[in-house]
Each structure stands twice: as C-alpha cells, then as structure tokens.
C-alpha cells in the first residue's frame, strides 16, 4: 500500500512544549463499521465490521455507519472470494444518509445507485479481488477518488464526487466478492504506516495562563501544496511535504493548493532543518492564484513580489525551529492573521484584506528546509472565498449597489450588466453549462479555477467560461 496514503493513519503523539501546552496529534477516526441499512442479501458479522453476501450475486449494497472525511483512507480486506460469478466489488461514496435509503436500495450500485443524485461508485477489476488482500480508497478535496491494493498505489480511480457535504462510504459486494471487512488502520502492520504522517487528526492543547483556555480544534480537512512552485523545491507524499533541494537557499516558493477559508486553521510541521544556512523562513498571504504564475519568473528576493499587481503580504519568520515544531496559520473574518508556534498563543499578528481569495505561501530559505502540511481545521461556517460572500445573489438579483464602495449597499441600482463579484466591470461572458450571465470574464475565470467553482446564481459547477461580444 502506498505510504503516501496510509501515512495519514499513523497514531502518534508529538510533544512540543515543556510547560504551558502539550500538542498531541493522533488518529481521531472511529473505526468504520457497516450501517444497519444494506441490501437484502447482506448479512453483518463481527459486530458489524464484516459484510457477507449470503445469496446470489447482487443486492449486496452496504454503507459505512458514519460519514468519512475528505482524505480519510477506507481500508477493506477481502475475506471470501467466489469463482462462480463474474465481476467484483464496487466502491464509492454517497451524499445521502443511508438511514433515508431503506426503501430505495436498488439491486446494483452501478448503474442503478449511481444514476440517483448524490451517489458515485465504480467496479474494481476482478483480478484485484484476492482473498486477504487489503484495498484502500479515499476522496480528495477536488472530488477525485484514489485507490490502491496492498503495497501498490493505483492513483485516481474516478472523479466528480461532490465534497461539499457529508459523505458515506458505499460498497457493493458484487460478483466474485462474497465477504469483506472494514480494517481498523491502527491494527495494520507497520509496513502500511509511514513515519511522515499526513495527519487528518485532532489537535489539542492547553494554555494555562490564558483565560481563553487553549487551542482546541480538530484537523478535519486534507490540504496539499499547489502544483505551481519554485524550481528549488520538490513535493512528495501527495504534495503534502515540500523539500528544498540540496545545495540551494532560494527560489523555494510553495503555495497552498486552494485559497483559504476564513477562520480556517492551517497546521504546518517542521520536518527538516539545516543550521548551516542563514536567513529566516519566509511566509505570506496573496490574492494571486498560483495557477497564473510562471515558476521561471519567481524573484530571488521575495520582496519583489510586492511590485506585482496582485495583493501580496510578505513576512520573515525569525523564530528558531526544530524538527517536530508545529505552526498554525489562520485568517479571521475581520482579516486578522494569527500565527502560532507550538505553545505560543500569538506568535505573530497582522491584518490582510479578507474580501479577496487568499492563498498562504512560503519560501523555504534559511535553516528550515522541509515542511509538511498536516491539514487544517475548518469550522462549518467558514467562508472559502469572495464568491461565497455573494451567495444571496442567486435569489435576489438584481440587487442594490453602493457604487462608491464597489460592494453591496443600500443605494444605487445594480444593473444586470454589472459583474456581481467585482461590481466594477461589465458582464461579458456566459457560464457553461447553466448559461447564466452575471460576471465579467476575469472574475468568472478566477472563480472557475478556484475551489468554489460554482455559479453564484444557481450553484451549478462551472465547466467553462465563454466570452460574449455584444
């Protein structure tokens, strides 16, 4: 099994403070069991961890008993295989609570269940279904489902899963697959677990001197680095670990793969240091979508980024870091940026413009030569980017606008020809496939390439932006 996936399940405790606080990172997932709602040919055994098809070759749909997290690997052991049938296990996800599907379960997951809204599944190859083999799969933030078998990583299996709400695992015990078992990752052999944890986990601590008590939040979101990065940095472990290339001390820029939600807490761990290099870890906030950047044009001096037309904040972190130190970055709804190192409640604080999509970025210079994105803590009410600030427009267009401020207001009539995002440019494009005309081409293109790529009117996923010439 690929270490890049299984690493997120390693159970470990990291002590980062001697006195005020102990930071613990550990597996927070309850072991998966099968839901009591399942196909009529399914029997549950071993306290609900085993599902067995008792008759025929179909009516074997089963679900996890709880929602699974984005980035959480699901481990399944093949307990019994039959040579009497063709086809094999189907795996996938559903947005529909299994408790509501008792009277709606079809004979097959594919295509019957997948033809119903909010369900995604695909059949694995028959050759993969071998007795005692362990299959794993998970869905990433982009809706791509990755999978592997035993020690072999197979990459993306299928895509298109909507990760905006709760997801339950779906298994169709079909064909040659007769019995399967959910495997508790904490019981796997060490060979399935990597030392570099990806940690979709819990982060807790205590700050005894503070009336506000302590940092106490759950890492509940998978987060990786963007594919655009400086020439002197390499990414590994599903782009969650960034390493500066040996012998270099510049042009090691890295960005988060998506803009941050307001109130989201991003957790970074120091993985490697090299004291022979001078300088400080550099970090910052930008409104520039990394997809638009040319890696060959990154400046040697990060301060030169301030000359670019986008919004850039560049900071030097002069703290001394050791391997295992943890840094938490967050942006409040008021634009306050708070950076916390280990048990220091407010290591740094400054303000940014929260009305724009904002990416976190680093330049790995100085002693810090490798960092890991452990994940992030995202409150349910967190806002992804500026488009979400205008969610009400889908039911209230046209709206009033304050032309002097460029933001929604109480005076001045907003016309249908004015972009609902920037309120400054004229509508000059149409969204495919919904056909709505509500944005300028620049804003629509940025929204399409963001993690919240939905039409602000109907919330249909933006597949393309078509420029309109009047």
UniProtKB/TrEMBL annotation:
<dbReference type="InterPro" id="IPR037962">
    <property type="entry name" value="Neuralized"/>
</dbReference>
<dbReference type="InterPro" id="IPR001841">
    <property type="entry name" value="Znf_RING"/>
</dbReference>
<keyword id="KW-0862">Zinc</keyword>
<dbReference type="InterPro" id="IPR043136">
    <property type="entry name" value="B30.2/SPRY_sf"/>
</dbReference>
<keyword id="KW-0677">Repeat</keyword>
<keyword id="KW-0863">Zinc-finger</keyword>
<dbReference type="Pfam" id="PF13920">
    <property type="entry name" value="zf-C3HC4_3"/>
</dbReference>
<feature type="domain" description="RING-type">
    <location>
        <begin position="419"/>
        <end position="459"/>
    </location>
</feature>
<dbReference type="Pfam" id="PF07177">
    <property type="entry name" value="Neuralized"/>
</dbReference>
<dbReference type="InterPro" id="IPR013083">
    <property type="entry name" value="Znf_RING/FYVE/PHD"/>
</dbReference>
<protein>
    <submittedName>
        <fullName>Protein neuralized</fullName>
    </submittedName>
</protein>
<keyword id="KW-0479">Metal-binding</keyword>
<dbReference type="GO" id="GO:0008270">
    <property type="term" value="F:zinc ion binding"/>
</dbReference>
<feature type="domain" description="NHR">
    <location>
        <begin position="31"/>
        <end position="185"/>
    </location>
</feature>
<dbReference type="GO" id="GO:0061630">
    <property type="term" value="F:ubiquitin protein ligase activity"/>
</dbReference>
<dbReference type="InterPro" id="IPR006573">
    <property type="entry name" value="NHR_dom"/>
</dbReference>
<feature type="domain" description="NHR">
    <location>
        <begin position="222"/>
        <end position="376"/>
    </location>
</feature>
């Amino acid at each position: 099994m690929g270490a890049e996936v299984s690493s997120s399940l390693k159970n470990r405790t990291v002590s980062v403070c001697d006195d005020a606080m102990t930071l613990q990172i550990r597996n927070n997932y309850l072991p998966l069991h099968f839901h009591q709602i399942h196909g009529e040919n399914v029997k549950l055994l071993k306290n609900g961890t085993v599902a067995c098809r008792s008759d025929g070759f179909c009516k074997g749909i089963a679900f996890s008993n709880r929602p699974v997290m984005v980035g959480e690997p699901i481990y399944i052991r093949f307990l019994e295989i039959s040579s009497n049938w063709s086809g094999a296990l189907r795996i996938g996800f559903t947005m529909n609570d299994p408790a509501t599907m008792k009277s709606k379960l079809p004979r097959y997951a594919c295509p019957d269940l997948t033809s119903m809204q909010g369900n995604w599944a695909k059949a694995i190859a028959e050759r993969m279904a071998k007795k005692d083999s362990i299959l794993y799969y998970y869905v990433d933030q982009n809706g791509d489902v990755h999978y592997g078998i035993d020690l072999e990583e197979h990459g993306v299996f299928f895509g298109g899963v909507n990760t905006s709400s709760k997801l339950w695992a779906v298994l169709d015990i079909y064909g040659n697959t007769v019995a399967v078992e959910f495997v508790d990752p904490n019981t796997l052999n060490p060979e399935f677990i990597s030392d570099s944890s990806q940690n979709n986990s819990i982060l807790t601590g205590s700050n005894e001197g503070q009336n506000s008590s302590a940092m106490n939040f759950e890492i509940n979101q998978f987060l990786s680095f963007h594919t655009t990065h400086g020439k002197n940095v390499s990414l590994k472990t599903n782009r969650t670990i960034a390493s500066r290339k040996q012998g270099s001390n510049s042009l090691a820029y890295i960005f988060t793969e998506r803009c941050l939600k307001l109130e989201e807490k991003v957790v970074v761990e120091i993985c490697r240091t090299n004291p022979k290099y001078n300088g400080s870890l550099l970090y910052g906030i930008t409104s520039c979508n990394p997809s638009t950047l040319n890696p060959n044009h990154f400046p040697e001096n990060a301060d030169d980024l301030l000359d670019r037309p986008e919004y850039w904040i560049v900071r030097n972190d002069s703290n001394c870091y050791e391997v295992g130190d943890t840094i938490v970055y967050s942006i409040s709804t008021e634009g306050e940026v708070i950076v916390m190192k280990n048990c220091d409640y407010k290591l740094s604080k400054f303000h940014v413009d929260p009305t724009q999509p904002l990416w976190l970025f680093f330049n790995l210079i100085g002693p810090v030569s490798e960092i890991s994105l452990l994940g992030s803590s995202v409150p349910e009410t967190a806002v992804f980017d500026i488009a979400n600030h205008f969610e009400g427009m889908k039911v209230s267009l046209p709206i009033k606008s304050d032309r002097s401020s460029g933001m929604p207001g109480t005076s001045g009539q907003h016309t249908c020809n004015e972009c609902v995002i920037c309120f400054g440019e004229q509508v000059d494009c149409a969204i495919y496939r919904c056909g709505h005309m509500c944005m300028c081409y620049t804003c629509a293109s940025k929204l399409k390439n963001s993690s919240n790529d939905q039409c602000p009117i109907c919330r249909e996923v933006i597949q393309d932006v078509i420029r309109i010439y009047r």
